[in-house]
Structure formats: structure tokens, C-alpha cells
Batch of 4 targets.
Target 1
Amino acid sequence: MSLAYPIKNVKDLAHAFAAADEFMSALSSRLYPQPNSVIMNPAEDFYVAPYCFMRTKNRVETGFLVFSSMAPFIKTDEHEAACTLIKRNGHHKAPFLNTIEGFQETLCLDEKDIWTFTSDGCVPTAEDVSQELEDKAIRVVCDLMKWRYPYDWRVKRAEVAYIFTNWPVLDLAEYDSRRGQIEQLQHQHHQLQRNQQQQQQQQQQQQQHYHHPQQEQEHFYDARQYAKDDQKKTKEEKKETPAFDYLPLPPIHSPVQQKGGGFFERNADIFGNKFVEDDDGNTFFSNNDTVVYDENDIFGDIDGI
């Protein structure tokens, strides 16, 4: 929600800031029924701060000084109740309530007719709220309207200030003095959070590196499966492979064996060889059809003995 105060001359600037303080006091009385319980601060959505100056065309007013809440689109019954309280018991006129876009549409203004006070042109945040932002708002309006800068505008503001009893407003001078301490504490808090997150990530990485129960289970399962597959394959190969492949090959010349009774005679056809018998009845193991008998052969020498 935004507040708009009409500005006709330089004196109205101090009155507009005093009226904004009065509105926050009235709003606090509706939001916080318990007196002196809470002082509204920039961390809350309802807190308002100067945002822009809307210069009007063909109107009696020179323009409108617009204050925006930290949540620009928030509007509750408490806003209307605060305006009613100001109209009944306040010292200043109640502000016009609307959104930034609503004011721009109502006043038929272009973007070039709106001058913002924040560095990025967006609605103010808690980091923007300061006395410096208020001084900048006064300076921008005075430069735009060619008015002399009123160095005593804070004194004039205090002279016309009014707040409802037991619902004070935030003192920005004190708030700025504590800003450095607050920012330092916030920085330390964020640094502590980052360190804790890094430690948690490191612990999780170590746990994942040293302990993977699911992966170990899958690994052992795969090993057993591979062993079963290997055993099955070995059995299948043994079924398909003839047993004689595992026997040693016989020598070229076989010892004297009784025809038909020796191992080689029984398996000669299996190995693709055959046994032949010479004229003297000696049996030879041969892999050729032609048998050549040498007198110097060991079998000949045995016969000579």
C-alpha cells in the first residue's frame, strides 16, 4: 500500500513527512492493540518510506509525495481504520491510499513524470530506509521544482509532528546509529549459517564416500550372479567339448602293444591315426598310409638282440 500527500510548496514537504509519521502511529494502534508494545520498524511489511514524487499536469498541486510500504501491494482493513482515526482525531490530513500504479493511472502520468528516490528505482526495502533516503527525497523534489533546499526541514517537521499516545514511531537517527551494529550481527549470523552448511555438506560427502550400503549390496549381488553365470558356462562348455580334448597327444612311435588290446589300438581311429604291422609281426603307430621301416630303428635293434 502507498500513501500520497499533495505538495504545493516547499513547506508542504516537512508537513508530508510529519503526516506519514502520524499515519504509522495510527496504523500501529490498530495493528498492535497493546500500548507501547511494538514500534513499527523497516523489517515489517506495513512500514512506509519515501519512494517517489509524481509531478502533476494542469492541476493546482505541483505534485504528490508518495510513500510506499515495504510490501507495496498489501492493503488491510487496518489501513482504512488508521485513516478514519486520523480524520477524527489527527492533526494532519489523511493520505490518499492506493498502489503506485493506481496513482499513476488516476493522475494520467507517464513514466517520465515519476522521479524515484531509491538507487535502483524499486520500492524501498529495509536496507534503503535511512535518514539519507529522506534527505534525498527532499533534494530531488527541490531540484525538480527549482526550490531552495530547506536545511531546517527536520526542525519544521518536529514542530508539526503528532503521534498518537502510546504508539510512537521509529527514530531514524537512532536506527541509523545502530545500523552498523545490526549489519555486523547479521553478517556474523550469515557467516555462521554458511559455515554450518559447509560442515554438513562435508559430513554428507564423507558418509557417501565411506559407506554405501546399497552399492555394496548391489556389488555382492553382482559378484554372486557372475559366479553363477561362470559355473553355468563352464558346465555347458564341458557338455559341448569331447573328453579326449583333455588327453595328452600320443608319441609318434608307440611302445609294442598287443594288437587290439592296447590303448592306442583302441583309440587309433579317434586320433585319426592307425596301427600297422610289418612282415615280422611288429606293430607300429603311424599317421601315414605308408610305413617306412629302418633297420637302425630301436625295434630292429631289439630283434637283433
Note: The longest strand covers residues 48-55.
Target 2
Amino acid sequence: MTTDTSSSFDTSSIALSSFSDYQLYTFTEGYLSGPVVDLLGKPVYFLSTVHNERGILESTSITRYSASGSLVAQIYWAKEKIDISASKSTSPLKSFLQRKIGIPTSKYYFQDESKSLFYWKEESCMTSEKRLVARYTRQKKGPFSAIPEQPATLLVAEPYATVPTSVDHILVTAVIMEMRRKKDERSSGQSNGLAGGIMSQS
């Protein structure tokens, strides 16, 4: 797989503050498309999204950059299911990322390949012992630009960032969580300038 990354964002200037023991991943073109690069600008993942003839989102593939371009996951938004390549399994999205209703915020639980339990609460990913694993920052778009003014980023703690299959699951679930937010914003009519729902996402 070859992709021109010459226009990728310079991530070296992004302050990590208290996240010195974290790896930074940047969604350079959009949370559903294009390269995801590390702090040095090296591509780690590539996201590709397919829409139908009416512009409605159908699926997103997440591929790890390598000589073979190994597929990590295929998310079928319309069918609400996901294929995970490592385990050769297909699951409903609601089973892969299980919601536990809470007040005021719900938690969404998932397991990685080693069956370790994690959950997303808002934009933070935690272990079952409430230890911070990752934090997602949403993209912001300029009013007239298709390129993000501020790209989405994912900070992953070093102990997990060194295990590719753990990063795979954290990144895949981060994408699903962001899609949930978009859909909720569209449903509530509070998109705050962001494209909502499942129409023409990028």
C-alpha cells in the first residue's frame, strides 16, 4: 500500500503535557479515512471508507501499514457488525463494544485478543481497575476546508502501545465510539459544526 503523506500534519509540536509515557496517533485526513501516523509522522494505520450511491456510509476498513498491508478490522455500519481479522471472528457491534448504561455517562466495554477488559467513558479508555489506557481527542474542521483544522488524535499508554493487538482494539473501538457520538449529535440536532450521523462521514 502506498500513500502520499507529504501533506501530513506535523505532530511534533503537539504538547503531551502529562502524557510523556504515551504514544500519539494522529488521524491526518479524518477519523474514518486516510493515514493514521505516529509522533514522527510514520504511517501506522490506514482507514478507508465506502459509501453507497446515496452517500450513506456502508463500511470502514482499518489496515495496519506493512509490506502485506494486513487488515485489522472491517466495520459494517449499516449491518452493525464487525469482522476482526486476528481472531477471524464476526460480531454485532453492540456485542463487540457493550454498553453499560450509567448516569450521567454510559460506559462501553470491550476485550482485546488477550481477553483483558477495557471500557470507554466519554473520550477516555480505562482498564477494569480504572487505570487510564488511552485518550481520544476529536477532530475540528475549519468552516470551508475538507482537511481537519485540528485532526483527531489518540494517546495510548506505553505498556499497551508496545502491543500491536492492544493498539488495534483501542483504535478500532475509538473509531466506533466517535461514530456513536456523531450519530447521537445528528439525532439530537446538536452537531456543533461537525457532520453527524452516517451520511458522508470522513
Note: The chain is about 15% helix and 35% strand.
Target 3
Amino acid sequence: MLSLKSSLLACYLAPLLVSAVHIDTPGRRHANVTRSLHKRGQEFSLYDGGPVACGGSVSGSDTNTVALSHFLWDGGSHCGQKVTIHAYGKTKTVTIRDECMGCHEGKLDMTRGLFAWFTGGPTDEIGIFPGSWSFGDDEEKKKEEEAQKQKEEEQKKKDEEAAQKKKEEQDKKDKAAAASSSSVAAAKSSSSAAAKSASSSASAATSASTSASVAGAATDAIPTGSFMANANSLLVQIGSLALAGYQA
């Protein structure tokens, strides 16, 4: 009976004991880290440093190293990758150099130096604190975004300058075409006026010649030296002058 009770008690206590075991990689001691198979919110724990899974070792006072959960480790593919951490109103970009066997997916394990950099106080009194983190360097992302924005602005400026230049060239062409049309119209008008003037002069000359011929004929018909001949000649000349003035 006692043996049965002992077996039942052992079965009940075994899972509790397993869940409280600290799991460390060789050369590393995790503080207040327990294994969890459930993904929780993002948070941070600490360890004392030592040999790291990515090669080499780190000291406990290091402020640039974190260990990534074994759930995300992926055979060490994240070694050397940057993560940006936000906590206690501070932001810092650090490097993944180790694997945390006791961390759930959202937890990063920090060296004591980095842990103290955020908390500003004794590490042993805190153990774990909440915050947020993401893969990548926020500063680099910001620089890339600014560079992309500047590139887009420069391209926009170039496009505007090209459009303005094209418009100016088109305006010049339009003005040149308008000036050419005006010159052609002026030349046509001048040619027409010259032709009209020449026609008027020829007509006047013809009229004068005709008048002179009529006057000559009339004068020839009247005896020379008579009063009527002189009067008739004068009237003919006056008529010729009046006709020429009217036609002009």
C-alpha cells in the first residue's frame, strides 16, 4: 500500500520538478530561466556569460550580446544577426551570439552588463523584465528609409526639371512658329500693296495718255490760232488733270 502511494506521489511530482529545472548550455549559467514550451510575450532574462554557441566567449559585463531562444535558433543561422531592443524607455541594437535553451520564443537572454544597462539597477533583484525586440537594426532601417526617400525626392526633382525644360522648348518653338507666320503674312501684305500701287500707276498713265490723245485730236480739229481752239485746248487740259486726280 505504501509502495502504491509512493508511486502515485512520484508520478504527481515528476512533471513539477521537470518544469522547474534550469537548462544551461556548457559554460553558461542562466538566472531565473525556466524551460517553457509555450510562446509568451517578449521579455528578457540574464546570464553570466562564458563560451557562446556562435564561437568564442563573452564576459558577464558585455553590453552587446544576447542569446536567442532555441525555438528560433535554426542551427545557428542567426549568429551575428542584429536585434533592436526597446525597454525602460531605452533602445539598443545588439548582436545574437548565443543560444538560450531555457527561453521561450519571445525571450532573449542578456549578459548581466546589458541587463543592467537597461534596468539601471542590481540584476539579481529583477531577474526578468518585459520589453520588445525585433530582428534588424532600427538605425540602419531608418538610414535606408531616409536614403530611399532622398532618392525619390531627387528623382521627382529631375522629373520636374525635365518637364519644365520640355515646356520651355515647346514655348520657344511656338513663338518661332508664330513669328514665322507673322513674317509670311507681312510679306504677302507688302507684295499685295506693291502690286496694287503698280496697277494704279499703270491705270493713271493709261488714262493720261488717253486724255492727251483726245486733247490732241480735238486740238487738231480746230483751226490754229482761233479763240475757240485755245479755249477748247484749255478745257481739255483741265478735264485731263481732273480725271487723272480722280483716278489717283
Note: The longest helix spans residues 138-221.
Target 4
Amino acid sequence: MDAKRERKSSLAPLSPCPIPDITDDELVTISVRDLNRTLKMRGLNREEIVRMKQRRRTLKNRGYAASCRIKRIEQKDELETKKSYEWTELEQMHEDNEQIRLDVSNWKNNSLKQLTVRVLPVHCIEVTPELTEVTQSHAVMAFRRFCKSLLYGLPLGITFLDCVGYVARVDGTSMQPALNPVAEERDYVFLLRWGLHQSAVERGDIISLISPKDPAQKIIKRVVGMQGDVVSTLGYKHEIVRVPDGHCWVEGDHTGHSLDSNTFGPIALGLMSARAVAIVWPPERWRLLKNELPRRRRPIQVAKASYYN
């Protein structure tokens, strides 16, 4: 850095101006058109005109460099001041947090002491070895009862969730107005697993199934057609589709705002996981979910009775 400054300081000064009555300040501020007119009026030769223009460019470049240098220094000073102010604020915040932590700890300790004195004075109970032994015995018995309840209850809970059903939250607006009629609110439904594959699924039922696009995601739709039915589609590659064996046709009630069979075709029956039977939350939405299918979405032709019909 010092060597660079020395090189700058060792540069030779500018040569004398060919026109003495034009100062450097005037030369920098004068426009190119006025400069050309002035040089022509003075009768300067080509070499002198070129030197004047070079002198003007040099002065402008030096002025620009000086202004940039001053601006950088001002920005640096401003950033340093801002940094110092923010560090001061940060230290003050640390001190305030530490003081609040100490106040909370002291308040907690004082409250516990006052509660102990009011509820259970020290002189009321004499802690004897017999009392200690009884207390430990009760604690051991309580722990054993808890472990026993857990061993019996955990398998029952898992069996209930796997075989009977569970409660799940419904996201999205694809089943409006039956589910989530208000976009900002979410319905919770009871999904029944019991008898799902025992001829319990019918047209018009709302079912939960594994998404054929993303196996990690579960979707909830209404059954429109069962295997063997002929259904009319909405935007599918074929206007009329015969549902293959082992499949069903599902759609969302909110037409045009649902990713369903009109997007990815018939759904394998093995992807069905549960049937939605009731809305359990919020309380004002408590109700059983009816089996209903709009007339315009009923199958064109219904297949003969089968395992799932």
C-alpha cells in the first residue's frame, strides 16, 4: 500500500495548459461542444487540441477517483459507527436478558419457599425412617402399576389403530363442501378401517387412500365408480372409461380443484386404507358423513354385483 502511494506521489504533474486563460476547473466543467468551439476560435493546431482534450480527460479521471475515494471513506466511517452502535445494543440486550433470567430464578425460588411454608410447614411432619420406607414402597408400587398398564395398553392401542380406526386431519379444499367448507379451518374425521375389504365400500363413500403419485402421502376422495362400472371423466385422456377389475374411480367433490382419477386414472383397490364415517372436530361440525353421489357424476353403466359392489 505504501509503495503504491509512493508511485502515485512520484507521478509528474500535468504539463502547462496550451491556453493559459482557461483554468483546470473551467476545462473540467466546460462541455465538449463549447471546448471544440473555443479551441477552433483560438486557432490551435491539431497537436495542441489533442493535448487539451487529453488534459481534460485526465482531470476528469482524477476528480472521479478523488470523489470515489472520499465516498468510500465516508461509507467506511458510517459503517463503523453503525457497527459500534449495534454492538452496544447487543451488549445491552445480553445484560437485560441476564437480569431477567436472574429475576425469574429468584421469583421461582421465593414462590416455592412461600408455598412450602404455607401448605406444609416444616414442624408439622417429622420425617422418620418408617415414613421414608413407606413412601419408597408406594413409589415402587405406582411404578409397577404404570409399567403393567403400559404393557397391556400399548398392544391394545396399536391393535385398535390397525384394525378399527383413527382420527386424521383433512387438508386442502378438494372435498369442499363436504369437508373443509371454510378454507382457513380444518376438519378432523374418524377413518374406519374395520371391514374395509369386506364389501363395506360403496359408490358415494368418502375413503382415504395412498396417493399413486406419492406413496408417502394419503389423500381423501369420494368413490364414483367400482370395478366394471362405465364412468364419464372430466379432463381425462378418455371421455368414457370402464373401470378395470381390482380398481375404482375416485374424485374430489370440488370439481376442478382436485387431483383424482381424472388426473391419474383408476385407483387400485389395494391402495384404500380407510373409510371416513364422521367429522369429530370442530364441535360445531360434528356429524356423520352420508353416502351420497351427485346425479351428474353417477356411472353411465353399473356393473353387476361383485366383491366390492
Note: The beta strands are 165-169, 188-192, 206-210, 218-225, 230-232, 240-242, 247-251, 267-268, 272-281, 287-288.
